[in-house]
Amino acid sequence: MRPNGPLSGSVRIGGAKNSVLKILAATLMAQGDYRLVNVPHIADVETMCDLLVSMGVDVVRDGESLVVHRGSDIVPEAPYELVERMRASVVVLGPLLASFGWAKVSMPGGDDFGSRPIDDHLLGLEQLGAEFELSHGDIEGRAPRGLTGSRILFEVPSVTATETVLMAAVRAKGQTTIENAAREPEIADLAAFLNRMGARIIGAGTSTIEVEGVDELTAIEHEVIGDRIEAATFLAAVGVAGGEIEIEGARADHMDMLIHKLGDMGLRISSTSSGLWASASRRLRSVDIATLPYPGIATDYKPLLVALLAVADGVGIVTENLYGANRFRYINELIRMGADIRTEGHHAVVRGVSRLSGARVKAADLRAGAALVLAGLVADGETVVDEAFHIERGYDDLAGKLRQLGADVQRLRD
Ligand code: EPU
User: Ligand 1 centre and the CA of 299: distance in Å?
Assistant: First the structure.
């Protein structure tokens, strides 16, 4: 990739990764044929499909849709190879236990963000009556008498723990109340999918979710919401490179706080009938940023924002409130490109420089990889991002879409 002039044109975002992965898991809950529309071509979706197929589900790609046939013969087990490839695989635990009364799921290990426990998933399911045993690296869950509704109060608003308990509660007997639930739009999308299947969920997208258990669910068709993090990536791209672009399929109401923050930095953003319009005519101003659960600034936006601050005018302090300092690892790569950033525990102090310098850098994870690509747009000379396969876990042809906006970016072979 080479340095760029201003971007222009229009780009379409795909369906939300963190929505479709859970919706795919939820198809385990009722037999029949599903059609999921607006499903991105990304590696994490492939992994979830491989997991469903390993359990006995048929999944066929049809353009931007997936046709899922869930028959009667299901093996409720998620093996190590697939959970190790993608820790979000653990979201099958709730649907499997609720539907089959037994499930075996490999325990996810640490990852590039450091320790990410699933104790809240298990505690929540235990409160619905499940019992767990950990042996040989697998979690074996049992609910021989079925699950029973309960009041669950999460210590932290975890996205996947909320989704795990939500899916299980749909088939539990009686009423479940989930308090301090995570509020991400992807959770509301999962609940919309489940309600269309016949579930009775109220309040998804707020911190209190009420679920009335039902006996029967049916297979349906559903269109997945747009990926707000992919949309944020293009907003950040126009922020670093300048120009004027349209992002089709993006929804301002899913990214209020971020739009506000980018507005403070000097990026102009408006809603259009089909998405968002954004324009940056001069160098952006630095701001301070703290990540928080939704509706706060998502931790997934942070690498993109650090790339923006790296070339903004002034000093910005970035505070990571969800994960440990491991989520700052990409910063060393930005420093190799000439960024002036100091980290101290959960904080990063980013002193903007006017131009970066192209270098060979390495993507540590999906969002970090995207941030390095953005940095390459304002770096003199050539930037090569190694281990770009991380980016493909969550982006469908990031290089191609940036090229559509006039950027000079190529995907090289691994
Ligand atoms: N936490 C616990 N105990 C638990 C679960 C979580 O203490 O049992 C803590 C975590 O340590 C963390 C906080 O709760 O401090 C939030 O973590 P959360 O559980 O919400 O993360 P997650 O559900 O594992 C999802 C997204 C991530 C995104 C986070 C935070 C999916 C598949 N993943 O992960 O997205 O960063 O929420 O918003 O939905 C990505 O898209 O690349 C990605 C990593």
Answer: 9
Contacts for 217 with CB less than 8 Å, ≥ 6 apart: 29, 30, 170, 171, 194, 197, 198, 199
Q: Are 367 and 395 in contact (CB under 8 A)?
A: no
- Average the pLDDT over 344-364 and give the result: 95
Going by alpha carbons, the residue nearest to atom 6 of ligand 1 is 158
What are the pLDDT digits (tens) for 215-253?
A: 999 999 999 999 999 999 999 999 999 999 999 999 999
| 40/157 same-domain check | yes
Per residue in 291-319, pLDDT tens?
999 999 999 999 999 999 999 999 999 99
Look at residue 160 and tell me if it is in a domain: yes
For residues 314 and 184, membership in a common domain is answered with no
| Domains held by the chain: number | 2
Residues 188 and 255 in one domain: no
* Cβ(254) – ligand 1 distance below 6 Å: no
Residue 207 belongs to domain spanning: 17-223
Q: What is the mean pLDDT of the chain?
A: 95
Ligand 1 centroid, distance to 194 Cα (angstroms): 21
Q: How far apart are CA 68 and CA 220, in angstroms?
A: 10
Last residue of a domain, one of 223, 244, 277: 223
In this structure, the dihedral spanned by the alpha carbons of residues 214, 216, 217 and 218, taken in order and rounded to 10 degrees, is -150
Question: Does 161 contact ligand 1 (Cβ within 6 A)?
Answer: yes
Q: Is the CB of 60 under 6 A from ligand 1?
A: no
- Residues 245 and 216 reside in one and the same domain: no
- What residues form DSSP beta bridges with 157? none
Do 238 and 372 share a domain, yes or no?
Answer: yes
Q: Is 191 helix (H, G, I), strand (E, B) or coil?
A: helix
Q: Which protein residue has the closest C-alpha to ligand 1 atom 9?
A: 158
Ligand 1 contacts CB of residue 394 (under 6 A): yes
